[in-house]
Design a protein that fits this description.
Blueprint: E1 2-8, H1 12-23, E2 28-31, H2 39-43, E3 50-53, E4 61-62, H3 69-75, H4 78-87, E5 92-94, E6 99-102, H5 107-119, E7 123-125, E8 130-135, E9 152-156, E10 159-168, H6 183-190, E11 195-201, E12 205-206, H7 209-215, E13 222-231, E14 240-241, E15 245-251, E16 255-257, H8 258-270, E17 277-280, H9 287-293, H10 301-305, H11 311-321, H12 332-343, E18 345-347, E19 351-352, E20 360-365, E21 383-385, E22 393-394, H13 399-412
Parallel strand pairs: 1-2, 1-10, 2-7, 10-21
Antiparallel strand pairs: 3-6, 4-22, 5-6, 8-9, 9-10, 11-20, 12-16, 12-19, 13-14, 13-15, 13-17, 15-16, 17-18
């Protein structure tokens, strides 16, 4: 059986790509090995799907080639997807930092994508496992045996299929319990593509045992902070600073989580896990002025910090620093150290909770080998890679879904 386009992976990027191809009049088959459709969309955002962000810029993405995302985000923006949501009469709301969520449930977004596919007469094959993909040599297939000019054979557990173009939308390695595999990377390698090492991103950080012995008892406590990761990519140059993230930090029984830890984790992973994470523990204050204001106070730092933090956190943190005396009894050097540490508390995570707890995958198919406007392979015409399988990782807050929509749109409009 022949199709103009076969899309492998029926997630966010795959459904968008299939819908676009089908609405251009192409015959499209959408294949997925899972029984349930779009399970990652269904569980996202606490079941309400943070489907995009009002302010999406290239700076919100990590990649070995930071400029790669510009063309796709320009061709299909967050406002374009919001227009589809509005057209479908899906109620939604904005949370902090431009994040858009469904009012009812993530099922609304799944239904929207399925409706777009239906408009393009997209055919579904699910569950169906793909065993291999092979390129057809043009000179080995005379027109009479290949009347459609097919370029690929897709071998499945239920037989072989022919197609002109293949779009790989199989995602990364995150949340293997709902079906994540390395299939997309294997196909990319088969066709000569380089893979940037996949690592868990937007993932909780873990502490070494000596830190856990101090902070594990704070599990469940949260405070607003300002955090960043230094990225010293060249020892002969000054350390490069990543963006600062001003959100909440959550202590867990394993280490740190919450929006700030997840955001910084991606940069820490990209820097090779050897860098320091710096945290401003009182971003709402001018810390130097605040400390000097209390310089002659007979109160302890624990008491003063308890006005802004949970008391248990203030006590534990001050004990760990050895700062239990009243400020008036502390030396100028101790006050200077105290001020510096409140502004730049330095952490050295021991690792992460891995792909099981990660939101997305960092790394993937090398973008230098893909066309930035179409997501087509520069090595194999007709082969496309979209979504999380590509070396593009967004911030927390709807940016990864927007990459799925944008990259899927570009491939679907071209294949």
């Amino acid at each position: 059986m022949y199709f103009d386009i076969i899309v492998i992976g029926a997630g966010a990027a795959g459904m968008m790509a299939a819908a676009q191809g089908g609405q251009r009049g192409r015959s499209v088959l959408l294949i997925d090995h899972s029984v349930k459709r779009a399970e990652k969309i269904r569980i996202s955002g606490g079941g309400r799907c943070n489907f995009t962000n009002l302010d999406v810029r290239p700076e919100n993405y990590l990649s070995s080639n930071p400029k790669f995302v510009r063309a796709a985000l320009s061709r299909f923006s967050s406002h374009d997807f919001v227009s589809l949501v509005k057209k479908a009469h899906i109620p939604y709301h904005e949370k902090t930092l431009g994040q858009l969520f469904c009012d009812r449930s993530a099922q609304d977004i799944i239904d929207l994508l399925q409706d777009l596919c239906a408009e393009g007469n997209v055919k579904w094959a699910q569950p169906l496992a793909v065993e291999s993909v092979q390129a057809i040599a043009a000179d080995a297939n005379p027109a009479q045996s290949n009347p459609h000019g097919a370029r690929f054979v897709v071998n499945t557990t239920q037989g072989s299929l022919l197609c002109q173009s293949i779009i790989i939308a199989t995602g990364g390695l995150t949340v293997p319990k709902i079906g994540a595999t390395d299939f997309g990377y294997r196909i990319a390698k088969q066709f000569g593509h380089h893979i940037i090492e996949p690592r868990p991103a937007l993932v909780p950080l873990t502490f070494a045992p000596e830190w856990l012995s101090i902070y594990a008892e704070l599990s469940g406590l949260s405070i607003p902070v300002l955090a960043r990761c230094s990225m010293d990519t060249n020892k002969s140059s000054k350390a490069k600073s990543t963006p600062e993230f001003a959100e909440s930090l959550l202590f867990t029984h394993r280490g740190l989580s919450g929006p700030t830890a997840l955001q910084v984790s991606s940069y820490w992973q990209m820097a090779g896990r050897q860098q320091t994470i710096e945290i401003n523990l009182l971003p709402q204050l001018n810390i130097v002025e605040w400390v000097q204001c209390h310089r002659r106070s007979k109160q302890t730092l624990t008491t003063l910090l308890s006005e802004y933090w949970p008391k248990r956190l203030a006590q534990t943190w001050c004990e760990a620093q050895g700062w239990l005396r009243p400020l008036v009894e502390m030396s100028n050097q101790e006050i200077e150290q105290l001020t510096h540490r409140l502004r730049r508390w330095q952490l050295h995570p021991s690792g992460t909770l891995g792909f099981d707890k990660a939101e997305v995958t960092l790394g993937g198919v090398d973008t230098d080998e893909l066309d930035q406007r179409t997501l087509e392979s520069r090595r194999t015409p007709g082969l496309f890679f979209v979504g999380e399988v590509v070396d593009v990782t967004g911030w927390l807050g709807g940016y990864n879904f927007q990459w799925a929509w944008s990259s899927g749109f570009c491939a679907g409009q071209t294949a």
